[in-house]
Design a protein that fits this description.
Layout: H1 7-12, H2 17-35, E1 40-44, E2 50-53, E3 60-63, E4 69-72, H3 77-81, E5 86-88
Antiparallel strand pairs: 1-4, 1-5, 2-3
Length: 90
């Protein structure tokens, strides 16, 4: 099968696929960076330490001991707030 050398695209005014993808990525990047919610800060008040997994993001959150703090994705916050030794401080 032979190639038309891009003449068909020139004839119909089409852009190459990679140009469309680059323009799409450029258009979305600034919007996506601004739309994310701010993390919430949780503090561990238990005696030893705890590691837990975010219910939504599946991210690991590690609190090494009493007073340890960690930034938590707001989507995971409701599940972490139900744990007895974690307190949301923001």
């Amino acid at each position: 099968m032979s190639c038309c050398g891009g003449k068909r695209a020139q004839l119909y005014g089409a852009r190459p696929n990679n140009a469309v993808m680059i323009d799409h990525a450029r258009a979305l990047a600034p919007t996506q960076a601004r739309t994310g919610p701010s993390p919430m800060i949780f503090e561990y008040v238990g005696a030893s330490g705890i590691t837990t997994v975010g219910a939504v993001t599946r991210k690991l959150y590690r609190f090494d001991g009493r007073g340890a703090r960690s930034a938590v994705d707001p989507r995971d916050a409701p599940a972490l707030a139900r744990l007895p030794d974690l307190r949301c401080i923001t």
